[in-house]
Write a structure and sequence with these properties.
The protein is built from 13 helices and 21 strands. By secondary structure, it is of the alpha/beta class. It has two domains: 249 residues, Aldehyde Dehydrogenase, Chain A, domain 1; 181 residues, 3-Layer(aba) Sandwich (Aldehyde Dehydrogenase, Chain A, domain 2), CATH 3.40.309. The longest helix has 26 residues. It starts with a strand and ends in a 15-residue tail after the last strand. Bound molecules: 2-aminohexanedioic acid (UN1). It is an enzyme of class 1 (oxidoreductase).
Length: 469
């Protein structure tokens, strides 16, 4: 049987090894377990997800350490991820009540009309490697609360974190048949998504894979599909005096988690009169940025990217931009031949004839100089993606114009493109996903509304068109 192995990006050491799962068998177990889980009271399911938080809290440091090992992100960031997992539970309980709770309505029909929600059944959760606990958890918890059985297929780069997440859930008393782990690669992923006994797919990952799933499910209109994909997110810098703060905001947007966030700023669009000063501040800050292993002391700003192949692809992308009209502001360099530590790359692509509209998932920032605010907005919209966008500086009137014209699901003023709230709807448009698949509105994907109209006695409403007896 094929085995999956995960390695620590920072050291190259093997971290985890396990056999690929049997999709049919796992789906069968979920199918059989589901009715009993759905029949539990909502209060019981809520009690159990709250117990999961208690279990996790007991081993919060160990879990953060595992996340740091398997992703390469610094401990301070791994701890933040565990906090986000914990916070998601109360957010999801609230979201279930507010988004999918029972509602009476005035339907205009005779009788009492109400909308109530039911779980879909078996939900497949496909997770990413950048937040291997937080993002799948953001789908698992609302789906569990709603009464679904879950199959988690973690990214093949982070199986250990996926396994640990479910272990805490099982310890809390959520049955192991109700939250199962499927280890595997694309083959298992495809089989799971297309399985006739899987009722919904909650996906977080690249646009390429998300679009393939969407195509695969095109003939199954009833299957629920939440797509949280990537971005080619713009950050516009307009008139603003606080350049130290602006530089810090740009660095945070583009380079936290080594740029491996769906919300990372990929394109910096700068007003021409601000350009030299902004770039100067930015370069100085990037030069001070510490890159290192997750447990280094002092803690690094960012770790390695996920693996050597990704590091190679990113440095190749940087060279591609450079040889196609880009001007290097700061070179993306490999710091270690054997490990995927790379320096943040910044490149001015203003003069590039054709700009690639792909998500470069790493610490690579493309910079564009513009001389007019409307051109800046047009430049920001020059993408098929539409996840997150920020304006830094400018007047309230300009922010309003930006807000009205920008095509993105998350729009910010004077704050980074990333670090979006988990208590708010989260998601994008276009190649970024199908609207609001995550965070607060994830609840919408986890239960379907049933409209019921109820009368005390049987009665039809059409009384014309019959012959006399
Ligand atoms: C980010 O903005 O860096 O809970 C990711 C969620 C979001 C994820 C945000 N807060 O799904």
């Amino acid at each position: 049987m094929t085995e999956l192995v995960s390695y620590e990006p920072a050291t190259g050491e093997e971290l985890w090894r396990g056999a690929h799962g049997d999709v049919d068998k796992i789906v069968g177990v979920a199918r059989r377990a589901w009715p009993q889980w759905a029949a539990q009271s909502l209060a019981t399911r809520i009690e159990l997800v709250r117990r999961f938080v208690n279990e996790l809290r007991k081993e919060q440091d160990e879990f953060a350490e595992l996340i740091a090992r398997e992703t390469g992100k610094p401990m301070w960031e791994a701890r933040t991820e565990v906090e986000a997992v914990i916070a998601k539970v109360e957010i999801s309980i609230r979201a279930y009540a507010e988004r999918t709770g029972q509602r009476k309505l005035d339907s205009g029909l005779q009788g009492t009309a109400a909308v109530r929600h039911k779980p879909h059944g078996v939900m497949a959760v496909l997770g990413p490697y950048n937040f291997p606990a937080h993002l799948p958890n953001g789908h698992i918890i609302p789906a569990l609360i709603a009464g679904n059985a879950i199959i988690l297929k973690p990214s093949e780069k982070t199986p250990a974190v996926g396994e640990a997440l479910l272990k805490y859930m099982n310890r809390a008393g959520i049955p192991s048949a109700v939250v199962q782990l499927l280890i595997g690669g694309p083959e298992e992923g495809k089989a799971l998504v297309a399985h006739p006994d899987v009722d919904g797919v909650l996906f977080t990952g690249s646009a390429q894979v998300g679009i393939a799933i969407n195509r695969k499910l095109a003939t199954e209109p009833g299957k629920i599909l939440a797509l949280e994909m990537g971005g080619n997110n713009p950050l516009i810098v307009w008139d603003t005096p606080k350049l130290n703060d602006v530089a810090a905001l740009i660095v945070q947007s583009a380079f936290t988690t080594a740029g491996q966030r769906c919300t990372a700023a990929r394109r910096l669009i700068v007003k021409d009169t601000m350009y030299d000063e902004v770039i100067d501040h930015l370069k100085k800050l990037v030069d001070r940025l510490i890159i290192g292993g997750p447990f280094d002391d002092p803690q690094p700003f960012m770790g390695p990217v996920i693996d050597n192949r990704t590091a190679d692809q990113l440095t190749e992308s940087f060279l591609y931009l450079l040889s196609n009209g880009g001007k290097a502001i700061s070179h993306m360099r490999r710091l270690d031949e054997n490990r995927p530590f790379i320096t943040p790359g910044m490149i001015d692509i203003t003069d590039m004839a054709e700009r690639p509209d792909v998500e470069l998932f790493g610490p690579l920032l493309q910079i564009i100089k513009v001389d007019d605010f409307d051109k800046a907005i047009a430049e920001a919209n020059n993408t098929r993606f539409g996840l997150s966008a920020s304006l830094v500086g400018g007047t309230p009137e300009q922010y309003n114009r930006f807000w009205a014209n920008i095509r993105a699901g998350i729009v910010n003023w004077n704050r980074p493109t990333n670090g979006a709230s988990s208590a708010a709807p989260f998601g994008g448009i276009g190649f970024s996903g199908n609207h609001r698949p995550a965070a607060y509105y994830a609840a919408d994907y986890c239960a379907y509304p049933v409209t019921s109209t109820e009368m005390e006695q049987p009665r039809a409403s059409v009384g014309v068109g019959f012959k006399d007896q």
